[in-house]
Amino acid sequence: MRKILIAIAALAVGAIASAQYQDTTPDLGQSAVGFSFRVGVYWPADNAMRDISNTFSDVGMEYELEKSLLSTGRTYISGDWISNKFVGGEHVANLTLNQRIYTRNQRFSAGGTPYFFLGGGVEFIHVNHIDTTTWCVRGGIGAEFKGNYFIEFGGYLSPKKDGINPSGIAGSIGYRFQY
User: Fold this and answer.
1) Rounded mean pLDDT of 7-13?
2) Is the dihedral of CA 66, 68, 71, 74 positive or negative?
3) How would you label 134-143 residue by residue, b for 16+ Cβ within 10 Å and e otherwise?
4) 3-state SS of the chain?
5) Less packed terminus of the chain by CB within 10 Å, N or C?
């Protein structure tokens, strides 16, 4: 019983001490709240999708949330439109909640600030007269540059649904609008 009371007291002292601590280093990941827009190329992994086209266009928009799950990055909602034609045609759309984690303490520096991202959400498939919905995971790496420009390489992973697997890889460039 005495060991349990000592452990509880140590936890209480630790909780009080951490509540009193104020981090004076700025959270650089919080400075760019707003929208991002990106365009790129998507290469499907599935033969049924490659029968339509070997490459698809990928247009994405991101909204960075004001509060991040991790202090070294940004939490954001991402929407992608992957299609063989810009409007209409065979397409896959997804909506995901993501976390971007920076590998350096600076952002928008000369030479780029590298990061990696991981997210998950829902995917809407409209390919070969099939309209279905499934889950998806997206992840990859990227770098931000001065002038709010960035480049990303990522992958999409989702299960095969009704004979279509929209998994694949994408490369894109984009711009972050800051508030």
Assistant:
1) 52
2) negative
3) bebbbbbebe
4) CHHHHHHHHHHHHHHHHHHHCCCCCCCHHHCCCEEEEEEEEEEECCHHHHHHCCCEEEEEEEEECCCCCCCCEEEEEEEEEEECCCCCCCEEEEEEEEEEEECCCCCCCCCCEEEEEEEEEEEEEEECCEEEEEEEEEEEEEEECHHHEEEEEEEEECCCECCECCCEEEEEEEEEEEC
5) N
Hey, CA dihedral for 90, 96, 102, 106, is it positive or negative? positive
Q: Give the pLDDT confidence of 54-71 residue by residue, as tens digits.
A: 999 999 999 998 888 888
Assign residue 56 a region: left if phi > 0, alpha if psi is -120 to 50, beta otherwise? beta
CATH of domain 25-178: 2.40.160.20
**Of 116, 118, 119, 109, which Cα lies nearest the Cα of 149?**
109
Q: How much is the pTM?
A: 0.75
In sequence order, what are the residues at sequence separation of 6 or more whose Cβ sits closer than 8 angstroms to the Cβ of residue 131? 124, 125
Find tokens 């509540």 and name the residue: 19
pLDDT category at 151 given cuts 50, 70, 90 is very high
Computed over every residue of the chain, the mean pLDDT equals 82
